[in-house]
Amino acid sequence: MNDDKNTALYAFRTFGDIVLRAAFSGTGDMQEAEDITQEVFLTLHSKPRSFNDDEHMKAWLLRAVINRCRNYKKSFRSSMTDHLDDLSAEPAVPFTAEENELKEKISAMPAKYSSVLFLYYYEGYTIKEIADIIGKKENTVSSLLQRGRKKLRSVLEEEGSL
């Protein structure tokens, strides 16, 4: 984080993979995830911000990704491209086959659950940190995490994966 011109480049090199994985988690589509990732870093480049430390920068990037994923899920483009997901030959995000299957199930969940589950389990944030990132109270995040786990468990039980 030397100066404003290098902030976006530094952020991309440091957190690019994390941002892409978060975007994929939120959209379930690699091409949209790449577009969202590009938008986030382009925004940081065109409107430089100052950050206290790397964790502050990472939190801002994840918040920006979550917001864009929510916007994408509400968009007309999302509703028109959902049926094409089966045709995608795009390689998955660098996870194991089991992790990819689980990630697909998580990304199919409502955004309020999928983003909390992703941040908690894949990025290792605490409930307090997630609350700061998404701008909700700790109790709310805890409830969302608990409900998300229950929903995921019921999906896995229905499919016989548990």
Describe the protein in words.
- The protein has 162 residues and is mostly helical.
- Helices cover 75% and strands 0% of the residues.
- The protein is built from eight helices and no strands.
- About 7% of the residues have low confidence.
Quick one: overall form?
A: globular
Our estimate of the beta-strand percent is: under 5%
Number of DSSP helical runs: 8
What is the CATH level 1 assignment?
A: Mainly Alpha
- The figure for the number of domains is 1
- Structural category is mainly alpha
Main beta sheet strand tally, sense and closure: none
CATH architecture: Up-down Bundle
What are the main properties of this structure?
162 residues, mainly alpha, Butyryl-CoA Dehydrogenase, subunit A, domain 3
Summarize the structure in short.
This protein has helices at 4-27, 30-46, 54-74, 76-81, 97-107, 111-122, 127-134, 138-159. By secondary structure, the chain is mainly α. 28% of the residues are buried.
Task: Please specify the SSE layout and strand pairing.
Elements: H1 4-27, H2 30-46, H3 54-74, H4 76-81, H5 97-107, H6 111-122, H7 127-134, H8 138-159
Helix pairs in contact: 1-2, 1-3, 1-5, 2-3, 3-7, 6-8, 7-8
